């Protein structure tokens, strides 16, 4: 009889297993939330790096041409010589290999009159303004 009782005492009870599963679930939730915020931060850093690269290309374009590509010419004026509008005489490009989309898949916003420009990403929501991951990432310049 004693041997039979001992055999039923080995192992874990259902409640013990449920507590362990609950703890594992809570830990997994915490890890996923931390990864999600790290992903959002990485996308913002990537957008800032892209904007810095585009700004560098715009500055080289300005040094060669004496003006920035206009809004109508767009950022594609950094890849191929513009054929309309204020066509630069000394286009020395391409100034950048390609214009990447922002990390959320949207094109970077570019607006210029030739003397200064506005360059930005509208963040995760793709709409101007916002806070946190939806905040704008600005790379504007005025000369």
Please outline what is shown here.
This protein has helices at 2-9, 14-65, and strands at 109-112, 116-121, 137-138, 141-142.
- Classified in CATH, the superfamily is Glycoprotein, Type 4 Pilin
Helix-and-strand structural type: alpha+beta
Name the shape in a single word: rod-shaped
Question: β content, as a range?
Answer: 5-15%
In words, what does this structure look like?
- This protein is of the alpha+beta class and 143 residues long.
- It has one domain (12-142): Glycoprotein, Type 4 Pilin.
- Helix content is 42%, strand content 10%.
- Strands 1, 2, 3 and 4 form a 4-stranded antiparallel beta sheet that branches.
- The termini are far apart.
- The model has no long low-confidence stretch (mean pLDDT 84).
